[in-house]
Amino acid sequence: MDFGPARLRVESGADEEGGSSVGRKPKKQDRVVVALGGNALLRPGEAPTLASQVGNARRAMRALVPLVESGKSLVLTHGNGFQVGNILVRVEEALGKAYAIPLEMCVAESQGEIGYLLEQSLQNVLARNGLSRPVVSLLTLVLVDRKDPAFDEPTKPVGPYYGPKRAKELKRHGFPMVNQKGRGWRRVVASPEPVEIDDVDTIETLLQQGIIVIAAGGGGVPVVRKRNGMLEGVPAVIDKDLASGLLATAVGAPRLIILTGERAVFRDYQAKNAKRVPRLTIDEARRMAEDGQFPPGSMGPKVQAAIEFLERGGTDVLITSIAWLGRALGGRGGTWITRSSKRGA
Amino acid sequence: MDFGPARLRVESGADEEGGSSVGRKPKKQDRVVVALGGNALLRPGEAPTLASQVGNARRAMRALVPLVESGKSLVLTHGNGFQVGNILVRVEEALGKAYAIPLEMCVAESQGEIGYLLEQSLQNVLARNGLSRPVVSLLTLVLVDRKDPAFDEPTKPVGPYYGPKRAKELKRHGFPMVNQKGRGWRRVVASPEPVEIDDVDTIETLLQQGIIVIAAGGGGVPVVRKRNGMLEGVPAVIDKDLASGLLATAVGAPRLIILTGERAVFRDYQAKNAKRVPRLTIDEARRMAEDGQFPPGSMGPKVQAAIEFLERGGTDVLITSIAWLGRALGGRGGTWITRSSKRGA
Predict the structure, then answer these.
(1) Which of B29, B77, B165, B300 could, after both became Cys, cross-link B294 (CB 3.0–4.6 A)?
(2) How many Cα atoms within 13 Å fall on the side-chain side of residue A95?
(3) In whole angstroms, what is the distance from residue A31 CA to residue A22 CA?
């Protein structure tokens, strides 16, 4: 495609600066990893269609424009719960008519599907705003530890809800199932900790050239390294916020932005007097977690990802919603988490 | 992942040579685009399962080892007919239970699925052979012309075979259908010519760093540029050999290798006295095509892709099978097509 007059040249004969034609060489300190939550593509109560997702993707990508305009070097990660759930339904409904694929391959398919949606949407939004930046979406494998205790106790629900009869059948076929109060049975799978982003060298190369990278979709395709050194996929899902934090560390990004359904972290979230927490140090975040302020499966993994990223040397983490991103970047919303009490941003 | 002692360094502080730790800077003249045919992942008569594909992928990737060993810089493309057909079946069987996605998004999913299969398989095969080269799989959009006459006359069959009743229903829903003698009805979609590989700058960047790139799977996700400049997916499929040839030209690869079910191009293919054609010039290939030697949908598009690639400046094209690749590279098999009568290789 034609990226317009400011098109990035990366041919053999390109200048040593690697991207002088976009004005300047992208700097490591300008790197930001933005993790798009599942809500970014389908909000609760919306029609669960592709049309909804297309509209939401456009809105989400528009929210990223100020970051690109301000010269940030973006890595975009995304959740895939809704999409991979639908892929699992399709696989199951077509059993006997189409070959079955394991969960990790469903994750790979969802990276293709969502990567396409986001890449095209972001390219269009950037073009409409007169911005010329290549965008690429990578299939991303993420290594997990085969001895991760998560494999002994699957906890992450995936896919559709089943009635008790079908749940029993699936259980007999070796799939662990969980009864979700009133809504039915669901498969549960292991959610091991991400250990290493397989494609980090590639992402590094692309960022150095000023290319916006979409990666680690759905937390990445989970693979283990076998004793003989070979990679092998495992039917698990990796928390996308933990994978995003790990990726941010791996590419030396000082900032991680977690976009979720809530505009900020709240104290006493479920209570009437819930109060937005504008900023937190690691210690304060840890204390809130110990107080049980963050339910698992929602704000819990996000705060955990933030703490781990900051402990590994990250500068700051912003947790907010797409609608609030602009204000939060201006210091008027969201929750900023930093190592010490000096505020980030 | 750990690529071992020769791991490619691409961090900010990397040396100017960009890859000295792998011994040398990859050269443009060493670039080869290898197009894997559908037969590479599922051969006629094999059980249409994922297990078959996993075994075949490993065999196909092993055949590429000599190319990597000899210092070639690889771009791997692949077909997706069987896999996208199965995705279409899954989408249809789950209608009403999972959201529907259009054909181009099915192609994107198949790029994720097959990209994962090939990337992991190739990484393992290389590691087993003591070779340290990063492998990455890219979601690839390919631009087509919205005025391509193919859109007026869909010809490419996709997806499952239907009975006459279901075929009638689908026809009523606006899907063009074709009756394939005795085997049933199938959807037919447009197969427009590829005009531009959207992600070619990114692929260029990666090749310069010695990274093996898997791209343009299934011929690429077909998109058009609308009058307002925006990209939009179209429900079509692009011939993967034509897209591979275009990609080879775009990255300046002198060589295109098309791996198919046949070990070579044959004269009088259907006849008893079919004879392998060891080498062809563009002119000879064109004459054979005019003689009707290449049926459409099989050897036809491969020879067309070869001719077009050579006309745009390519040096040589090899058409052979995975099993024959080694011998063909040694000049003892396959069909080499070159611009003039001086033999390539």
Answers:
(1) B300
(2) 5
(3) 16
Reference B38, options B51, B56, B25, B63; nearest CA is B56
Domain spanning B32-141+194-338: CATH 3.40.1160.10 = yes
State the CB neighbour count (10 A cutoff) for residue A265. 28
| C-beta contacts of B122-128 below 8 A and 24+ residues apart | B122/B61, B122/B64, B122/B76, B122/B212, B122/B214, B123/A231, B123/B1, B124/A230, B124/A231, B124/B58, B124/B61, B125/B58, B125/B61, B125/B62, B125/B64, B125/B65, B126/B65, B126/B68, B127/A229, B127/A230, B127/B4, B128/A229, B128/A230
Domain residue ranges of chain A, discontinuous segments joined by + = 32-141+194-338
> What are the tokens at A299?
């704000």
Q: Which of B163-172, B213-222, B249-258 has the lowest mean pLDDT?
A: B163-172
Q: Give the count of alpha carbons within 13 A of A158, CB side only.
A: 31
Interface of B with A in 78-97 (CB under 8 A): 86-87, 89-94, 97
Joined together, the tokens standing for residue B110 give: 């198949």
Closest C-alpha to B45, from B261, B296, B264: B261
pTM: 0.92
- Nearest by CB to B209, which of A98, A205, A214? A205
Backbone angles phi, psi at A139, to 5 degrees: -65, 130
For chain A, give the longest Cα–Cα distance. Answer: 65
Q: Is the ipTM of this complex over 0.95?
A: no
Q: Are strands A184-189 and A135-137 parallel, antiparallel or unpaired?
A: unpaired
* CB-CB under 8 Å, A202 with B206: yes
By the 8 A CB rule, do A136 and B115 touch?
no
Q: Which of chain A's residues have a Cβ under 8 Å away from the Cβ of B202?
A: 10, 134, 136, 206, 211
| Beta strands per DSSP E along B156-296 | 156-162, 177-180, 184-189, 194-197, 212-214, 221-225, 231-233, 255-259, 266-267, 275-276, 279-281
B27 is catalytic: no
How far, in whole angstroms, is CA B207 from its chain's centroid? 18
Q: Are B268 and B293 in contact (CB under 8 A)?
A: yes
Chain B residues close to A112, C-beta within 8 Å: 108-113, 115, 139
Residue A342 banded pLDDT, cuts 50, 70, 90? low
